[in-house]
Amino acid sequence: MKLPILYSFRRCPYAMRGRLAIAHAGIQVELREVLLRDKPLEMLEVSPKGTVPVLVLPNGKIIEESFDIMNWALSAKTITHNECKLVFLCDTDFKPWLDQYKYPNKNKNYNREITLEQAGKYLDLLEAHLHKNIFLFGGARGFADIGIAPFIRQFANVDIEWFLESNRPNLIAWYKEFIEWDGFESIMIKHPRWFFGDPITFFP
Fold it and tell me: Rounded CA gap, 72 and 194, in Å?
């Protein structure tokens, strides 16, 4: 049986959440690990925009946004409007501040205090969601947890001491659970760069 093909890059948070959703749903795909600075022609032919993840379904349909890949993988589960909204806010409101925080030299007007204040608004929103539950929308890991956690991990890693000392105990506990979760560790296994003609790498 022909498998869906997933073009991915291990360290990209968008690709991480795509792999997490696929693994969480118990779907098997053919994984093609790429280098973003030297993208394979095969990927660019199906998705000229050149970003990961890209999913090629057996029927030829191309899904080239991580949010849509998550929706595809988790379609059998109940995904609420509020979950989608929280992930959307991560992508639109939080991610720009994360980029400034991680790459301050790219912005000549960078101000750490302002960046942390603005990013903190989203962190506080997550803290409020986690006030009563282990996960963002209840007692089980769901769409929002998978869609947001890779970006919080990236944010925390910029200055882990600052993050762990911030006054957000529920968010910190959620973050620690995520990075220690064997499901996350399993999708971060290193795979060699894919080249045309290589044997299939099955994922998960």
Answer: 24
